[in-house]
Amino acid sequence: MSELKHVITSRKGKSGEVKGIFIPLEVNHLEQNQKNGNVYLNMVAFEMREPKEWADHIIKQSLPLEVREAMTDEDKKNEPILGNLQTGAGSVSSGPVSVEVDEDDDLPF
Q1: Per-residue pLDDT tens for 13-67?
Q2: Contact present, 90 and 60 (Cβ < 8 Å)
Q3: 59 CB contacts (<8 Å, ≥6 apart)?
């Protein structure tokens, strides 16, 4: 997550100060679903030229076409790697957890 433009911040929570990460949506090309408010980071996997024991693909952000076309070859080459994956490996995913709070409200945790 820290490869995205972000700010580390602290907010007051029920049990004291809570340290967290604030990731702005627009500058990071994140998409928010208008119906349910969920936020999505579009990603793409690229096969590694030299696969490792633990991974055979790298994960990068899938940017909008107009953003990608405006990038130089050097910019594209230097896009941050967000993670990796091993194809064929099983995984379990839970649904998104999201709570909206006003700026002046304490965090609910």
Answers
A1: 888 999 999 999 999 999 999 999 999 999 999 999 998 888 999 999 999 999 9
A2: no
A3: 43, 44, 45, 81, 82, 83, 84, 85
* Residues listed for the chain: 109
The SS3 of residue 9 is strand
What is the domain count for the chain? 1
- Give this prediction's pTM: 0.67
Residue 21 within a domain: no
What is the pLDDT at residue 51? 87
Say which amino acid occupies 70.
A
3 state DSSP class of 73: helix
The set of residues, in sequence order, having a beta carbon less than 8 Å from that of 10 and lying 6+ positions away, is 17, 18, 19, 20
The DSSP symbol for 2 reads T
- Asked if residue 59 belongs to a domain, the reply is yes
Pick the closest to residue 79 from 54, 95, 62 (CA basis): 62
